[in-house]
Specification:
It is a single chain. By secondary structure, the chain is an alpha/beta fold. The protein has 3 domains: 68 residues, no CATH class; 57 residues, no CATH class; 97 residues, Metalloproteases ("zincins"), catalytic domain (Zincin-like). It has 8 helices and 11 strands. It has a 4-stranded mixed β-sheet with strand order 1-2-4-3. The longest helix has 27 residues. The structure holds zinc ion. The site of zinc ion has 3 residues, from helix 5. The site of zinc ion (ZN) has 3 residues, from helix 5.
Length: 249
C-alpha cells in the first residue's frame, strides 16, 4: 500500500510517498531526487507517520532543497569556476593556462587548480582534463583509504591483498574472493567518515562474507557510528558525484 502527500516547505513542493515495509524497524525517511519516501514498520499507522513527517518538516525541506540544487544540471563540460565536491566540501575548479603539454591538478584550500595547456583546442583540453580529474579523484580516495587502513588492519588482523578505486554503478565497495577491496570513486565526494565506514565494512567482509550479526558486530567495534554513516549513504548517496560524475563516467 502506498499513500502520497505533498509537503510544502518554502518554495518547494515535496512529494512524500508513504510505504509499508515489513523489514523496517523504525519510521525511516529517505530523501530522493524525485520524492521523499517514508517507510513504515508494522504497527505504525499512517497518521503516526504523517505526524512524524510534520515534526521533521524543516529537516526534510532543507535536505530536499539541497538535493534539488545538486540535481544534475547536464553540464556541457568541466568549466572554469564550477564546483566539485571534495570530501563533502565545495571546491572551485580554476583553469590556469599551462605552458607544459599536459594537465596538472593541484588543490589549494578551496580551489582545485587545473593547469591546462593554453595551446590546446577546447575539445582536447576538455578530454584531457576529464581524464586528469578522474585520476586525481581516484588517487585522493586511495590515499585516504591507505591512510586509514592501519587503524584497523593491525588491531583487527584484517589485511586486504590490495585496494582499488573505480567507478561502480550500484555499490560503494566490494570485497573480492582473493581479499582485494574495491571502492567506488564517488566516495571522494562524501564526508571522510562515510568513506572510512565503507573501508571498515569491506574489511569486515574479509572475516565474515555475509551481513550476519557477527559481521555487524565487527563493523560496530571498528566504527561505533556506522549506523549514521550508513544512513548518510542511503539518504545522500544517489546525489553523490552527480554533478561531476555525469561527466566523468
Ligand atoms: Zn557488505
Amino acid at each position: 500500500m502506498e499513500h502520497q502527500q505533498q509537503l510544502v516547505w518554502q518554495q518547494w513542493q515535496v512529494p512524500v510517498h508513504y510505504r509499508r515495509s515489513s523489514r523496517a524497524r523504525h519510521l525511516r525517511i529517505t530523501i530522493g531526487q524525485q520524492a521523499v519516501r517514508v517507510s513504515m514498520p508494522p504497527g505504525v499507522s499512517l497518521q503516526e507517520a504523517q505526524a512524524f513527517v510534520q515534526r521533521k518538516e524543516a529537516w526534510i525541506g532543507q535536505h530536499w532543497s539541497r538535493n534539488q540544487h545538486q540535481a544534475p544540471p547536464r553540464l556541457s563540460g568541466l568549466t572554469d569556476g564550477m564546483t566539485v565536491m571534495l570530501w563533502a566540501e565545495p571546491v572551485s575548479l580554476v583553469w590556469q593556462p599551462a605552458t607544459e603539454a599536459r594537465v596538472i591538478l593541484a588543490r589549494h584550500q578551496q580551489q582545485l587548480h587545473a593547469w591546462v595547456p593554453a595551446a590546446w583546442s577546447d575539445a582536447v583540453a576538455q578530454q584531457a582534463l576529464q581524464t586528469a580529474l578522474k585520476r586525481y579523484l581516484s588517487q585522493t580516495l586511495l590515499d585516504a583509504l591507505h591512510g586509514w587502513l592501519p587503524r584497523y588492519s593491525q588491531p583487527y588482523a584484517l589485511h586486504p591483498t590490495g585496494m582499488r578505486v573505480r567507478l561502480m554503478r550500484s555499490r560503494w565497495g566490494s570485497c573480492g574472493v582473493r581479499g582485494t577491496l574495491n571502492f567506488n570513486r564517488h566516495l571522494v565526494h562524501a564526508p571522510p567518515a562515510v568513506a572510512e565506514y565503507v573501508l571498515v565494512h569491506e574489511l569486515a567482509h574479509l572475516r565474515h562474507r555475509n551481513h550476519g550479526p557477527r559481521f555487524w558486530q565487527l563493523v560496530a567495534e571498528m566504527d561505533p557510528l556506522y549506523g549514521e554513516h550508513r544512513h548518510w549513504l542511503r539518504s545522500h548517496g544517489q546525489g553523490l558525484g552527480l554533478k561531476i560524475g555525469d561527466l566523468l563516467l
